[in-house]
Amino acid sequence: MSNRTIVVTGTDTDVGKTVFAAALTAALGASYWKPVQAGLDEGGDTSTVARLGGLPAERILPEAYRLTTPCSPHRAAQIDGVAIDIERLAIPAIDGPLVIEGAGGVLVPITPDLLFADLFARWQYPVVLVARTGLGTINHSLLSIEALRRRDVPILGIAFIGDAVEDSEATIARLGAVRRLGRLPHLPELDATTLAAAFQAHFTLKDFQ
């Protein structure tokens, strides 16, 4: 089994990266880790990934920090009276592949002095950038790519979420000089079965291996 580690991040919050992370984790037979969860409605993203990925409990790693307020982690930690220790955000050593999901976009602060992009630069694992296909995605995607490249973060490629918008998707891939991995369409019924089928239909697994 490969020990590949992939980081999933987004161009913004609510772009669909948790759904994509669930699909990728299931497809790779990987474990899942979200180091910082801010907001615990419905159990947070970890429980969503476990459900949508159909993952057994042993493949879900506990978060380093579970913060109650749904906002930027640096502020959520302040509200909760928690001091985030960067050493606790070291990637766990496990057997087999691992999918790691960030929070919000690439320039979201984890602490007042550390952005997620800075953490990704420390880790030096390949990043999949998840972007919506709707209006504004060209700007958000290219800014995110630029921020990652400025920090020498390796970019595996970009994954789109939503209805097909060929010009926007192609423009981002061309101007950003990134691989276009595929597009996950909106699913009328979203569950582990429909998500796995959609990922298989719209992505090539070996691109991630």
Fold and architecture overview:
Helix content is 35%, strand content 22%. The chain contains 7 helices and 10 strands. It has helices spanning 17-28, 44-53, 73-80, 116-123, 137-150, 166-176, 192-202; strands at 5-10, 31-33, 36-38, 65-67, 98-105, 109-111, 114-115, 127-132, 155-161, 180-184. A 6-stranded parallel beta sheet has the order 2-5-1-8-9-10, sandwiched between helices. A two-stranded parallel ribbon has the order 3-4. Helix 6 (166-176) links the parallel strand 9 (155-161) and strand 10 (180-184). The longest helix has 14 residues, at 137-150.
SSE class: alpha/beta
Uncertain spans, ≥5 residues at pLDDT below 50? none
Strand and helix order: EHEEHEHEEEHEHEHEH
Which strand-content bin applies to the residues? 15-25%
Number of strands: 10
| Shape annotation | globular
Number of H- or I-type helical stretches: 7
The main sheet comes to: 6 strands, parallel
Distance between the termini: 10 Å
Task: Indicate the radius of gyration in whole angstroms.
Answer: 16 Å
Spatial strand arrangement across the major sheet = 2-5-1-8-9-10
The oligomeric state is: single chain
Brief summary:
The chain contains seven helices and ten strands. The protein is of the alpha/beta class.
